[in-house]
Amino acid sequence: MSKRMMALGALMISATFTGTVAAQQPGAPASQTPQTQQQQMQQQQMQQLPKASEFSDKQLDAFADAQKDMSGIQQKYSQQLQANKDKPEEAMKVQKEAQEKMVEAVKESGLELSTYNQIAQLAQYDADFRTRIQEKM
């Protein structure tokens, strides 16, 4: 698998993780189906995100750099997680360490975590924006 594809995979994993955390928030009516709730949540998230044009090339370059680091971190720690799959406490420690390394990679790229998350979320919904990011990887 090419580094570009691994970075895109990391981007999608980041966006999915962000979406999963948001999906666990209380407040959705219980009468809706999970699919309807997810669609409504995605629409709300899209409305809250900045437009693609609001992100500078410098921010997207920083995001691409962070994504490159993320793919290495994810590769390293996924192997460790696999090795500890029968040891939940160890696996949680590995996961926490991986998250800390990912946060560190974002900060070292020069982006705020909130900006990184906004870019990742927008890339999940906007194919043109995602292509723009891929070109920088």
TrEMBL record:
<keyword id="KW-0732">Signal</keyword>
<feature type="signal peptide">
    <location>
        <begin position="1"/>
        <end position="22"/>
    </location>
</feature>
<feature type="compositionally biased region" description="Low complexity">
    <location>
        <begin position="23"/>
        <end position="48"/>
    </location>
</feature>
<feature type="compositionally biased region" description="Polar residues">
    <location>
        <begin position="72"/>
        <end position="83"/>
    </location>
</feature>
<feature type="compositionally biased region" description="Basic and acidic residues">
    <location>
        <begin position="84"/>
        <end position="95"/>
    </location>
</feature>
<dbReference type="Pfam" id="PF13767">
    <property type="entry name" value="DUF4168"/>
</dbReference>
<dbReference type="InterPro" id="IPR025433">
    <property type="entry name" value="DUF4168"/>
</dbReference>
<feature type="domain" description="DUF4168">
    <location>
        <begin position="56"/>
        <end position="133"/>
    </location>
</feature>
<feature type="region of interest" description="Disordered">
    <location>
        <begin position="23"/>
        <end position="95"/>
    </location>
</feature>
<protein>
    <recommendedName>
        <fullName>DUF4168 domain-containing protein</fullName>
    </recommendedName>
</protein>
